[in-house]
Amino acid sequence: MTEPGSGPGFLTLLLEFARLGLISFGGANLAEIERVLVGTRHWITPATLANGFSLGQLMPGPNMLSVTHYGFAIDGWSGAAAATLGFYGPTALLSAAAALVWQRFSTHPWLVAFRDALLPFGAGVLLAGALVLAQTSIHSWAGAGLALAAFLILWRTRVNSVWVVLGAAVLGAVLGL
Amino acid sequence: MTSSPLRPTSAALPEGAGAPQPSTPAALFRVFTGVALSGVGGGLPAHTRRAVLAQGWMTDAQFAESYTLAQLTPGPNAVNLAAMIGAREAGGLGALAAVAGILCPGLIVMLGASALLVGVGLPPVLQSALRGAACAALAVLLTAAIPVVRVALRVRGGAVLSSLTFLALGALRLDLLPVFAALVGAGLILNRPRRVPPHD
């Protein structure tokens, strides 16, 4: 995407992706990732955002490995390293610390209240991410139909989502989406 | 850590009779690499549960508690869960090993794919294929949201707060931190601890 050396620099990327990781609740915060990486910073295009997100669904392990793809698109290998370390490092550290604290204070009334306050926020974040992904990846009625069909299959059956994503990729190639 | 007079502290005693398998950082790395490989396309928490129960590291109740907590801390749930189980089992090094284990396989594949796709650009057929995959990826995201929304709706004010979060971040594209402060603050007030009978 960018020429080598013209990227925003390792530290800038590391800090930005650390911020994106720390404000992801309930999984991915795609809305904020799109707002910052595509909108404010213009580091990646909407097409790269959508491509990376679908690639993430096909990878073994957590599907937010798409951040590694975004980092690579921004600044090559160093960008990929900065994005991965920044996105996963601080949140993992926080989780490990939280696990140890929780073992001692899990019944504290304010911790319970905080959990209850965080749950609806996490749900809203996920739904906002779905809206943004729909806006960046669905450009036709065929695409919308494909998304709906995939949703019904995933919702109603126990098919592994990789097969659904791969099947949609084949259909996309055939239909020339 | 009190030393019983009948039992010399220098004796290397096991953690207890019928103690679970030792969970060294190396074992954590190995188990979570396996979890990542079996969890292509999601279902990671389920694979994690099966793996740690099989190792005898945790009971089902302990796992459920860790899982709830992993959903509450920011960041990807599956990685958070790995960090938490690693920390519980073997401290900081354990957390590091578990996170490295769950990230490694996908990281290698993703770096390969990125190197191929970003430098060269995509032929039209592959571009069409990825557009199709993106439609399914949206469906994956929506199905992942269903259980989270369901739980959120049971919380006091959950429906209103979820909808407001969705509107503020998805439709209005507002900055996340002020929205977080306002809506999680409101949630805290709504769900503040009240005087309840001690038996809950």
UniProtKB/TrEMBL annotation, chain A:
GO-annotated cellular components: plasma membrane
The entry's keywords: Cell membrane, Membrane, Transmembrane, Transmembrane helix
Membrane-related topology note: Multi-pass membrane protein
Gene Ontology MF terms in the entry: chromate transmembrane transporter activity
Protein's cellular compartments: Cell membrane
Top-level division of the source organism's lineage: Bacteria
Regions that span the bilayer: 80-102, 114-132, 138-155, 160-176
Keyword field contains Membrane: yes
One Pfam short name: Chromate_transp
Family: Belongs to the chromate ion transporter (CHR) (TC 2.A.51) family.
Name assigned to this protein: Chromate transporter
Organism expressing this protein natively: Deinococcus koreensis
TrEMBL record, chain B:
Highest taxon in the source lineage: Bacteria
Cellular component aspect of the GO annotation: plasma membrane
Pfam family, one: Chromate_transp
Signal sequence annotation: none
This protein's UniProt keywords: Cell membrane, Membrane, Transmembrane, Transmembrane helix
Subcellular location: Cell membrane
Region (Disordered): 1-21
Membrane topology: Multi-pass membrane protein
Spans through the membrane: 93-117, 129-153, 165-190
An example molecular function term from Gene Ontology annotations: chromate transmembrane transporter activity
Entry annotated with the keyword Membrane: yes
PANTHER family listed in its UniProt record: CHROMATE TRANSPORT PROTEIN-RELATED, CHROMATE TRANSPORTER
Similarity-based family: Belongs to the chromate ion transporter (CHR) (TC 2.A.51) family.
Official protein name in the record: Chromate transporter
Organism whose genome encodes this protein: Deinococcus koreensis
Species classification: Bacteria, Thermotogati, Deinococcota, Deinococci, Deinococcales
